[in-house]
Write a structure and sequence with these properties.
Elements lengths: L1 H5 L2 E2 L5 E2 L3 E6 L5 E5 L28 E2 L5 E2 L3 E2 L11 E2 L32 E2 L5 E2 L3 E2 L8 E2 L7 E6 L6 E3 L3 E2 L5 E2 L3 E5 L2 E4 L24
Antiparallel strand pairs: 1-2, 3-4, 5-6, 7-8, 9-10, 11-12, 13-14, 15-16, 17-18
């Protein structure tokens, strides 16, 4: 074993390991016993200086890997750094405004190393935290999504436009939250609002009261 290790010494004094090896220990004469650096095949075999000759730490990890032995995916990537074929570490691609920033001192958005799930802001969902949960909107706030608060009577359902917050109104209903009748309509109800049937000549206004009663003009 020592003979094998000595073959990887550099210089005429045999006091330095060749590239790709590091001094694991030394013999009784002070000569280093060199051991091959273990970088889990996550380095370029044609590159020089892939590891530290003294510590064995890998210095030039590729395939988006890192760590002392290139054994894990870099922050911002997920997958199995040891898998074959190489290149399993994939970008998290977390949506910045929808993702919770775990490290305030870093601009890198990390995800679960196994699944790639990004940590979402409140009421935000999706693997990349790029959409609001049902019934919420305003993803671009950067603080999570806020409730639509659609009126349960005037809205078709609890969802709204994720950009504007506009709820889906029933016929004859208006407002961002669908909470009032449009002009010239009355009878706010789960069926929507009905059109006022005011006579253009005999009514003081084409707008009826909330019960549909016509406002009679003065003769």
């Amino acid at each position: 074993m020592k003979y094998f290790l000595y073959l990887h010494l550099l210089s005429h004094r045999c006091d330095l390991c060749i590239d790709g090896y590091y001094a694991e220990s030394s013999d009784p004469y002070g000569r280093p016993l060199c051991r091959k650096c273990e970088c889990n095949e996550n380095v370029d075999p044609n590159a020089i200086g892939n590891c530290d000759r003294n510590t064995g730490h890998c210095l030039k990890c590729v395939y988006n890997t890192g760590g002392r032995y290139c054994e894990s995916c870099l922050p911002g990537f997920y997958g199995n750094a040891l898998a074959l074929p190489k290149g399993d570490c994939k970008a998290c691609n977390c949506y910045p405004v929808g993702t919770e920033k775990r490290d305030p001192e870093s601009d890198v958005l990390v995800c679960n190393y196994a699944t790639g799930q990004c940590p979402c802001q409140p009421n935000v969902e999706g693997k990349h935290c790029d959409t609001c949960a049902e019934g919420y909107w305003n993803l671009m706030s950067g603080e999570g999504c806020e409730p639509c608060r659609c009126d349960p009577v005037g809205s078709l359902d609890r969802t709204c436009d994720i950009t504007t917050g506009q709820c889906q109104c029933r016929p004859g209903v208006m407002g961002q939250k669908c909470d009032q009748c449009i002009p010239l309509h009355y009878g706010f109800s789960p069926e929507g609002c009905k059109h006022c049937e005011c006579d253009q000549i005999g009514s003081s206004s084409l707008q009826c009261d909330p019960y549909g009663h016509v406002l009679v003009g003065l003769m």
